[in-house]
UniProtKB/TrEMBL annotation:
This is Methyltransferase domain-containing protein. Residues 74-167 form the Methyltransferase domain. Pfam families: Methyltransf_25. It comes from the Bacteria. InterPro entries: Erg6_SMT_methyltransf, Methyltransf_25, SAM-dependent_MTases_sf. The lineage of its organism: Bacteria, Bacillati, Actinomycetota, Actinomycetes, Pseudonocardiales. SUPFAM superfamilies: S-adenosyl-L-methionine-dependent methyltransferases (SSF53335).
Length: 279
């Protein structure tokens, strides 16, 4: 169901977060001293969103020491349209296997990789993360950017234990729950199964991984929801050619964005960066 959900969303993701080649489907990072721009048309807001989504990956690279840990053979699990895969390959020279369970996304990622001259650096693998098998390991690291909420975490870590070398890192950027209401708000819109940090740590330890780093960036990602809602409002106000079905979808999206922002503020959801090491 998740694969079909994202196949159906491809054109919508490109419209909101494109154009390529580096298209991201995750929140943005806003340094504490930086406020998102107010006003502007949909294209202006989209440009700011993209800038801060790249900022999130650059922040992740800093705290995960990507120059050393994410410059070898990397699994990007739940790669979306490949923005992160291209980022790790272009910025740090990684050889990336971009894993997706949405078949429609694989040729899109491959096309963007060719556009960037990364044919030999980024390859796609269509499979379920819970059944992950690779024949060209062992890998030096696995990365999951707002994708692990869709996985069966115990099974995922168990599969990673077979394809990562000893000492390898599993780097996770994810939305974690701190109370039931937060879980409902996140899960109902994104069809995901959020968990607590403790649940991640327990699943990882059972598979031979240790949680070694945890960074909370909830406050620095809150402005994303303001910008995401602003983009949706700008499209609703500025595009007279929208069909009634599309207008209804965007209004639902707007309400969901506002609900996420409120839950972020209230402390029901936590945006965190975790790093695990294989023992």
């Amino acid at each position: 169901m998740v694969g079909q959900y994202y196949d159906d969303k491809t054109a919508k993701l490109v419209r909101k977060y494109g154009p390529g080649p580096r298209i991201h489907y995750h929140v943005g990072y806003y340094p504490s001293s930086e406020a998102p721009p107010s006003g502007g048309d949909a294209d202006t807001i989209r440009g700011s969103i993209r800038l801060h989504q790249e900022g999130l990956l650059r922040y992740a690279a800093k705290i995960w020491d990507a120059e050393h840990r994410l410059s070898g053979k990397v699994l990007d699990v739940g790669c979306g349209l490949g923005g992160g895969s291209l980022f790790w390959a272009q910025e740090f020279g990684a050889e990336v296997t971009a894993v997706t369970n949405a078949p429609e996304h694989a040729p899109v990622v491959e096309g963007f990789a060719r556009e960037c001259g990364l044919d030999g650096k980024v390859r796609t693998l269509v499979c379920d993360a819970n059944s992950l098998t690779v024949d060209d390991g062992p890998y030096d690291a696995a990365v999951a950017i707002e994708s692990s909420g869709y996985f069966n975490r115990p099974r995922w870590f168990e599969r990673l234990s077979h394809v990562l070398r000893p000492g390898a890192s599993v780097c996770v950027e994810e939305v974690f729950i701190t109370r039931p209401r937060g879980a409902d708000v996140w899960a109902e819109y994104f069809y995901t199964k959020p968990a607590t940090v403790r649940e991640y740590a327990d699943a990882a330890e059972a598979a031979g991984f240790e949680l070694v780093d945890e960074v909370d960036a909830t406050a620095q990602t809150l402005p994303f929801w303001e910008e995401s809602a602003a983009w949706t409002k700008a499209v609703l106000d500025g595009d007279s050619g929208l069909s009634p079905v599309e207008r209804r979808r965007l209004r639902i999206s707007l309400l969901a964005n506002q609900a996420q922002g409120l839950e972020w503020q209230a402390g029901g959801l936590q945006l965190g960066f975790l790093r695990f090491e294989k023992k």
